[in-house]
DNA sequence: GCGACAG
DNA sequence: ATCTTGTCGC
């Protein structure tokens, strides 16, 4: 993938998403998943500083083997649909500090469950050329029915077909395509929005999320990254960049 | 034109 | 996302 600038106007960012979306691989091309990463972004000083948190867990023990935090000035405001342009730069800074490469990354946000099928998980996966899964806590787009109540069960998240969708995706009688899964990761709690980021299918994405589930709503990779990105669990972060 | 809208 | 008090439950 050709490198591009992150400071773009909304119009340019949307045009870029449309150009990149066709490159997102939705087939399973996972390698040996020895390490699973979890990524999340937090903000400090009223949003002036962006704080990227990255954790590496060993599979299948899910033991935490490495964690890094990277801080840098916030450049872009939050605009629905353009989240990746605001958060990926900082995420890359955190990745640069990692001493080992993960075989899979779980990102807090959407994968292809995005208006132009290029949510932050897909964009990051494309940039790093690594398998990624979007694990969102709320919906950006798409519709879904009642979510089963048992842990591990899910209902499809569908959306009207778009130009950004591959021509070979299955379209139902109503012209809709499945872009993700609304997963009951824990009983009695709001469901999770799981969608393929890059280099894996929806069934595989759901499988990995379920396999990384503990007793909490979020899978371990995202849960730990979330905790590190926020102030909670004040863990001693390794190699950070101060401002 | 009127809502909806990841983090 | 972040700001915040109390409250319910394992």
From TrEMBL:
Enzyme class, UniProt record, top EC level: hydrolase
Subcellular location(s) of the protein: Cytoplasm
EC number of this enzyme: 3.1.21.7
The keyword DNA repair is annotated on this UniProt entry: yes
Annotated catalysed reactions: Endonucleolytic cleavage at apurinic or apyrimidinic sites to products with a 5'-phosphate
Annotated positions for site Interaction with target DNA: 78
Positions of Mg(2+) binding: 40, 108
Keyword list, A-Z: Cytoplasm, DNA damage, DNA repair, Endonuclease, Hydrolase, Magnesium, Metal-binding, Nuclease
Pfam family, one: Endonuclease_5
Transmembrane annotation, as ranges: none
Coiled-coil boundaries: none
Reported cofactor(s): Mg(2+)
Claim: Cytoplasm is one of the keywords in the record: yes
Function: DNA repair enzyme involved in the repair of deaminated bases. Selectively cleaves double-stranded DNA at the second phosphodiester bond 3' to a deoxyinosine leaving behind the intact lesion on the nicked DNA.
PANTHER family named in the record: ENDONUCLEASE V (PTHR28511:SF1)
Annotated family: Belongs to the endonuclease V family.
Name of the protein in its database record: Endonuclease V
């Amino acid at each position: 993938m050709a490198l591009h600038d992150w400071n773009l106007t909304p119009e340019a960012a949307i045009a870029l998403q449309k150009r990149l979306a066709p490159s997102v691989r939705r087939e399973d091309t996972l390698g040996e998943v020895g390490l699973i990463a979890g990524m999340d972004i937090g903000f400090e000083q009223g949003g002036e500083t962006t704080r990227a948190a990255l954790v590496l867990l060993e599979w299948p023990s899910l033991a935490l083997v490495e964690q890094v935090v990277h801080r840098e000035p916030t450049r872009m405001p939050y605009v629905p649909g353009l989240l990746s342009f605001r958060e990926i730069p900082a995420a890359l800074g955190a990745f640069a500090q990692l001493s080992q490469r993960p075989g899979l990354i779980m990102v807090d946000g959407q994968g292809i469950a995005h208006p132009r099928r290029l949510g932050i998980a897909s964009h990051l996966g494309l940039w790093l050329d690594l398998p990624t899964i979007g694990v969102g806590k709320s919906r950006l787009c798409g519709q879904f029915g009642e979510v089963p109540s048992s842990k591990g069960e899910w209902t499809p998240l569908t959306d009207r077909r778009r130009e950004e969708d591959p021509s070979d995706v299955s379209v139902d009688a109503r012209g809709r395509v499945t872009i993700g899964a609304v997963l009951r990761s824990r009983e009695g709690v709001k469901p999770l929005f799981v969608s393929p980021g890059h280099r894996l299918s929806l069934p595989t994405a759901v499988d990995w999320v379920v396999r990384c589930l503990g007793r909490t709503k979020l899978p371990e990779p995202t849960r730990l990254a979330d905790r590190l990105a926020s102030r909670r669990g004040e863990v001693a972060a390794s190699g950070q960049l101060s401002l």
